[in-house]
Each structure stands twice: as structure tokens, then as C-alpha cells.
Amino acid sequence: MSETILEKTEGRVSYHDSVEEMLKRIREDGMSNIFDRYALQEKIRCKFCLEGLSCQLCSNGPCRISEKSGQDKGVCGIGKDAMAMRNFLLKNIMGAGTYSHHAYEAFRTLKATGEGKTPFKITDVDKLKWMCEKVGIDTNQDINDMAIELAILLEDQQHIGKSEDNIMVEAFAPRKRKELWKKLDIYPAGTVHEEQNCVASCLTNVDGHHVSLAMKALRLGIATIYNTQIGLEMVQDILFGTPTPHEANMDLGIMDPDYVNIVFNGHQPWAGVATLLKARTKEIQDKAKAAGAKGLRIVGSIETGQELLQRFKTDDVFVGHMGNWLSIEPLLATGTVDVFAMEENCSPPAIDMYAEKYQVTLVAVSTIIDLPGVKHKIPYNPEEVDKMADSLIELAIENYKKRKERNIKAVVPKKVQKAITGFSTEAVLGALGNKLDPLVDVIAAGKIKGVVALANCSTLRNGPQDWVTVNLTKELIKRDILVVAGGCGNHALEVAGLCTLEAANEIAGQGLKEICNMLKIPPVLSFGTCTDTGRISMLVTALADHLDVDVSQLPIAVTAPEWMEQKATIDGIFTLAYGAYTHLSPTPFVTGADQLVELLTDQVEAVTGGKIALGDDPVQVAQDMEAHIIKKRKELGLS
Questions:
Q1: Of the candidates 299, 317, 548, 563, which lies 20 to 30 Å from 325 by C-alpha distance?
Q2: What is the pLDDT of residues 282-341, one digit of tens each?
């Protein structure tokens, strides 16, 4: 393991040596970059915004609350706690809306595939039948008909109202949680219905009570996981295969300028899978070679890359994954990218200058993506995805020729990190002999004290890129705590070498090390993307139901040590409703609202069993999480 950075270093912007290396080129070339822009923005931050005490929703504003100067309410009369919670709920809505958009694309892709209108096929027939059994669809019918019926049901489940049966929550939520959610009146309708309800509640002069707004957020969080995330991930398993563990290559060193390189960036795998299937044919490789290249390669970027990585083994065509979203500008600056295909977040809006400087063709392959400088837009349509793949390949080959004509100098860090990726609930159960008792036994024996789910972005607010994520994870595995990871934070851990048996032997505590070597698994299980928060919850639910306890009684915790954007906020809200101890860093922008802070960090524990914990110091945060896990162990009668 070559990356051993344990402390913040003056002047350093990233945990990763490859990013540091590329930043030198970026600055020498005079390029605007996220790291320098962050430093400039730090000089002009608004105190009121940082505390959640500003509002721009109506023409009577903008309003700011300052009790010191006597402005304890906005013009409309809203107080500080409701103002801060309403701001936070609007972020939750954006996160939920993006997830439900992803789900919409998944469900219509499954339907079109069942109708024979895409290049995809039903890869995991057993998963299709399992899902149909879970939601009450007859499995004694043609596989394609079954897929179509499931797709229609899942999309309908996103839209159901309060009076309609929530099939997904009933099928997948923990038994004891469902009872509690009904008692608290946070048992949800469909995600789209809850989004609509929350948006309407955020209108000026509608809901001015922070507790009411918080309860609506909890309801939206539950709907997002069950009516959206779980369905879309199961559909992607059905189409492309349920993830199974395998080794993959990570970091910027996977890039080679002598190949035509197509990078897929975002969160949805459709265009990436279709292009990868074509790229593995002799015909396409010969076309690339005819243009003077050694061949054509597919590269994964952030969550789209991870979706591919979970289900497809790396080889001479699919060469691996570059890292998380803060590494995008460094990736483009290598001078090796021919097409950067973008759908959904995160596609930074200032990369047109990189496209110009380093000869990159930017392509939007979604109905929602557009950036300055994007000349090629191919809105996703499942029935046209085969043609989309052809277009991307043609654009990439043409760009390769231009890149060579311009003599773009390639600068590629030599670092390539191996990682074991592709975990799922099925994979974990498979390693345990298809039963949970062995996991229960090793937890009861204390070899694994507990489990922490890391679902995370990457930010610069609490230090260099991925510094908190990597060092917190090291502290957790040292303490014999197994980490299950998803999101951009997962990429950070893969690039940092923590998804390896080597990490178990060099860093993990003795008990966790023993289990990892016995099962041949790393101390950090790569469960995929931020969308896989739902998948991770399925493992926890299985454990809770197996033991006949509530989620809040388990020796588990959740951390988002570098949350950044809106999708992370709705995941965090869900974990509160789920009953989990949830650590967040950096501190959300609500600190000026003392009653809201007390609600989220203390009072909510008596309501849902979950609570928010804050902190930027990896050692202290790990100690606090370990203390929580030990407390839960003792309550279960474990040593």
C-alpha cells in the first residue's frame, strides 16, 4: 500500500498522490480548478448561509435572521429553526428527485428490454423471479412478460398516494420499523408523491414549523430508499447481473494515451454498458486500430464507473475506474480522454476549458445534463441506446485523431491500485454459506465488534480530498469494525488501497484481520454507489429480521464523513428514520437553529432510535462510533 498519508499536510489538497501530481500540471497550464476555486470562495463565505439563517424564496427577501440585532424572524414571520429546516428539506427534495429520475430511467429500460427494443437482456433471471415474488407478481409466465410487469409496478410505486398499498416498503423494510413508522405517521407514500408534498410545504407561508418539516423529510427519506433506490438497483442487477466480488484497477494510472479512451461519468449505466458491449467486439477494436490507436478502451468515472465496476470484470477493454468527482479535472488534464460521456451528477460545469486545452469531446447522454461547451447531446432513450453507443465510438475515434494531430502531451501518474469490488447482500451471504448465523457468531464473539456503513461524497470543506474518509475508515478497521462502503467515498477507499486483503493484514485489528483472511474479503466491502444505500440497508434489514430485533438495537452505525451534495442529505435523513446512529462531516448548514440542532442530535433518538453525530477528527469520530457500538453490544448481552 503506497498511500500512507495520515495527517493533513500544509499546502496539500488531496489524500491521493495522483491528484497532487496532476494539479501541478493544471496550475502550470493556468487552468481554473476546483481546489483553487474553493480557496478563493473561503474568503467570501456568508455567515448567515453557513448557519442556515438566510432565505431567498420570496420578493420580500432576501431575509437573514440575526437575534443579536433584533431580527429574529423573516419578513413573513418564519423563525430561525423553520427557516433552516426548510432550506435543508429543499436539499432533500433535490436529492430524492435525482434518485427518482434515475429510477424512472431504470424502469423504462427494463420495460423496453422486455419488449425486445434494447441491446440488453435479462441477465439475472433468478433476481427477476425473486423480485417478482417479493412484490406479488406471478412468476409462472414468460421472462420478458414478467420483466415488463415488474417495470410497470415499480414505476407505479414511485407515484402511489397515501391511500394506496406501498408494496415496496412492505416487501423490504424491517418488520419492527414498519410498525414504528406507522405509529409516528411517517410511513410513506411513493417518492414522487412525497416530493410533491414536501415541495408544496416549502412554499412561502405554508409550513413554518421545524418539527413538521423534519417529519416530512423523514417520510421522504423512507420513500426514496424503498420506492426508488432498491427498485432501481434490483433492476440494474436483473439487466446486467448482481454484483459479485472481483479484483479491479483504480486511479489515474489506468489511462493510456495510445488508446481511444471513452470515459463514462455520472450515476446511470445504460450508455456505458451498451458501449462496453460493442467495444469488446473485434469490429470496433479494428476501427480504433485503423485510426492509429492500439485499440479502444472504456474507463469508469465516479458512480457510473462504479456501476460498471460492480458487474463487469476489468480487462484490456474495460480498464478500470479513475476515482471520485474531485478527480475529474485531473483526469481530463492527463491529455488521454477522447470522449467524456455525462449523465446525471457529478459533471462539473467548468470543464469546457479542459476539453479545449486537452482535446476532449464532451457528450451529454442524458435528458438532464448540459454544460457550457457541450456540442454533442444525445438524450437517453432505451430504444436508441445502441445508436448512442455507435455515435460515442465514432466521436471518440475522431477525437483521438485530433488529439494526435494537435500533439497533446499526455501526463499520466504511474499509480494503479488494485481493489476488490462487487459486493452485494447476495455476495456476503454467499461467503457465509448462504446464512447469516456465521456473521452473527463472529459479531457475538467480538471478532467483528460491529458494522459501519459509509455512504459518502467527497468534499474540501473538512480538509484535503478524501482525507477524513480514508483516515476515519482506517481508524474503524483498526478497532475491528467492518466497513461497508458506497458512493464517492467508496471510490476514495478503493483508490487508497483499503479494499484489499493487504489492508486487512496491515491495518485491521486482530479479530477483523482473522475473519478477512478466513473469508478472503477486505476489511472494507465495496457495495457500489450512493444509490446502493438501499442495497446496504437490505443487508442490515436481513440481520435485524434474522435476530428479531429493531435496527436501532444493532451494533451498527452510519457515516457520511465527506457529504457534499443533495443526494447525500436524503440518504442521511433516511438513516435517521431507519434508527441508525449517523455521523456527518462537515457540519450541515443549520447551526444557527438551536432547537433544530437539538432535535436532530438528541431528541430524535427518543422518536426513531437514530440521531446525528458531528465531528471532523477521524480519531475522535471513530472512538465515538466504537463507544456507540459497544453500548449496543452490551444492550444485546454481548461482551
A1: 317
A2: 999 999 999 999 999 999 999 999 999 999 999 999 999 999 999 999 999 999 999 999
Between strands 246-250 and 611-614, the pairing is: unpaired
- Give 528-589 as a 3 state SS string: CCHHHHHHHHHHHHHHHHHHCCCHHHCCEEEEECCCCCHHHHHHHHHHHHHCCEEEECCCCC
Q: Give me the DSSP letters along 278-321.
A: HHTSHHHHHHHHHTT-S-EEEEEEHHHHHHHHHHS---SSEEEE
Q: Phi first, then psi: what are they for 139, rounded to 5°?
A: -95, 0
C-alpha cell read off for 264: 463514462
Neighbouring C-beta atoms of residue 89, cutoff 10 Å? 25
Answer yes or no: is pLDDT of 397 > 70: yes
Rg of the Cα atoms in the chain: 24
How many CB atoms sit inside 10 A of residue 67's CB?
11
Alpha-carbon span 504 to 516, nearest angstrom: 7
CA distance 577 to 216: 11
* Tens-place pLDDT, residues 233-290: 999 999 999 999 999 999 999 999 999 999 999 999 999 999 999 999 999 999 999 9
Q: How many CB atoms lie within 10 A of CB 193?
A: 20
- What is the rounded distance in angstroms from the CA atom of residue 484 to the CA atom of residue 395? 38
Omega of the bond prior to 46 within 30 degrees of 0, cis?
Answer: no
pTM (whole model) above 0.70: yes
Cα–Cα distance, 401 to 397 (Å, whole number): 7
For residue 463, give the DSSP letter: S
Nearest partner of 305 among 282, 335, 325, 284, judged by Cα = 325
In degrees rounded to 5, what are phi and psi of residue 559? -135, 140
How far does CA 591 lie from the centroid of its chain? Answer: 25
Residue 96 CB partners (closer than 8 Å, separation 6+): 191, 194, 195, 198, 220, 221, 223, 224, 228, 570
- C-alpha–C-alpha distance, residues 363 and 545, integer Å: 45
163: Cα separation from own chain's centroid: 31
Query: Residue 363 CA to chain centroid, in angstroms?
Result: 22
553 dihedral zone (left: phi>0; alpha: psi -120 to 50; beta):
alpha
Closest CA to 357 of 322, 300, 398, 402: 402
